[in-house]
């Protein structure tokens, strides 16, 4: 089978297609025939070696950590049947851009009717992270949540989940993403010079989720009366320095099922900015690495 991945840590030059044997799953793993995979900025950090010690890598390994596809094999017992369309997070040491993908059954659920594989493949990492961040901060209805990088894969779904709970959302994003965010009920502020003043003009901020990092995160933290109400998916070290933290992931099948149900019920819109064929994997990764994509980048086959 073919994978698109890397056989050593480094920049985009380490990426290529590899021919590997069909995976032999462990007794508690699920193998699927890939239909769609989601890509995320964290995948670039894994390839670069920035997540060593946190994400298990077995070279050569496919890029990506969330996928949807049809079950080839699964642990014995009720639940995941051969041929069934499922979504899930990859098993330790495996990646998603692979013709056959090994999933962790604790993170794998059937895709409900009315949800496409492309939508489903965005749930385990990006949308799941958004839910975890929101649940950790637990803003009350009427409070104000500020999202830095509101138009990205985490941000564009976080803002929707917050609005479902009656939370007021202020989102900072590039102008190309404003129309979509406004349609999702976000009070949008243009990124770039002067963004802090523009946010201050909208009133106090109760909590903040950052998907940008760096100086933007540092400036955003100053808007909070309580810096502990800050979570970052982009720069955990700096988030801790300013009094906040990263997001603790709950990679749990029941939570993914709940999110899929929201998509099926049309209460949560999966925002996809770009979709590529499996043969265009390099272009898909480059699009993520550019840092300017609206919503999610998906690879389908």
TrEMBL record:
<dbReference type="InterPro" id="IPR013154">
    <property type="entry name" value="ADH-like_N"/>
</dbReference>
<protein>
    <submittedName>
        <fullName>NADP-dependent oxidoreductase</fullName>
        <ecNumber>1.-.-.-</ecNumber>
    </submittedName>
</protein>
<keyword id="KW-0560">Oxidoreductase</keyword>
<dbReference type="InterPro" id="IPR052585">
    <property type="entry name" value="Lipid_raft_assoc_Zn_ADH"/>
</dbReference>
<feature type="domain" description="Enoyl reductase (ER)">
    <location>
        <begin position="10"/>
        <end position="299"/>
    </location>
</feature>
<dbReference type="Pfam" id="PF13602">
    <property type="entry name" value="ADH_zinc_N_2"/>
</dbReference>
<dbReference type="InterPro" id="IPR036291">
    <property type="entry name" value="NAD(P)-bd_dom_sf"/>
</dbReference>
<dbReference type="GO" id="GO:0016491">
    <property type="term" value="F:oxidoreductase activity"/>
</dbReference>
<dbReference type="InterPro" id="IPR020843">
    <property type="entry name" value="ER"/>
</dbReference>
<dbReference type="InterPro" id="IPR002364">
    <property type="entry name" value="Quin_OxRdtase/zeta-crystal_CS"/>
</dbReference>
<dbReference type="InterPro" id="IPR011032">
    <property type="entry name" value="GroES-like_sf"/>
</dbReference>
<dbReference type="Pfam" id="PF08240">
    <property type="entry name" value="ADH_N"/>
</dbReference>
């Amino acid at each position: 089978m073919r994978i698109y991945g890397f056989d050593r840590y480094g920049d985009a030059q380490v990426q290529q297609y590899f021919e590997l044997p069909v995976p032999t799953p462990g007794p508690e793993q699920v193998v699927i025939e890939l239909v769609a995979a989601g890509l995320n900025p964290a995948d670039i950090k894994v390839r670069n070696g920035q997540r060593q010690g946190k994400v298990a890598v077995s070279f050569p390994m496919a890029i990506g950590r969330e996928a949807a596809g049809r079950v080839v094999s699964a642990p014995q017992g009720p639940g995941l049947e051969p041929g069934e369309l499922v979504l899930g997070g990859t098993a330790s040491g495996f990646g998603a851009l692979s013709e056959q993908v090994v999933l962790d059954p604790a993170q794998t659920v059937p895709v409900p009717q009315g949800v496409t594989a492309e939508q489903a493949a965005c749930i385990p990492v990006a949308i799941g992270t958004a839910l975890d961040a929101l649940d950790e901060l637990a803003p009350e209805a009427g409070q104000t949540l500020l999202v830095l990088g509101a138009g990205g894969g985490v941000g564009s779904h976080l803002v929707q989940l917050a609005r479902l709970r009656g939370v007021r959302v202020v989102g900072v994003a590039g102008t190309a993403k404003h129309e979509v965010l406004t349609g999702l009920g976000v009070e949008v502020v243009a990124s770039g010079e002067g963004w802090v003043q523009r946010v201050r003009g909208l009133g106090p901020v109760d909590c903040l989720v950052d998907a940008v990092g760096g100086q933007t995160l540092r400036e955003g933290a100053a808007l909070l009366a309580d810096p502990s109400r800050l979570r970052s998916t982009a720069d955990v070290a700096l988030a801790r320095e300013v009094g906040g933290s990263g997001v603790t992931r709950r990679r749990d099948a029941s939570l993914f099922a709940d999110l899929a149900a929201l998509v099926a019920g049309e209460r949560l819109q999966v925002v996809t900015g770009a979709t590529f064929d499996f043969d265009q994997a390099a272009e898909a990764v480059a699009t993520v690495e550019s840092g300017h994509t609206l919503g999610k980048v998906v690879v389908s086959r």
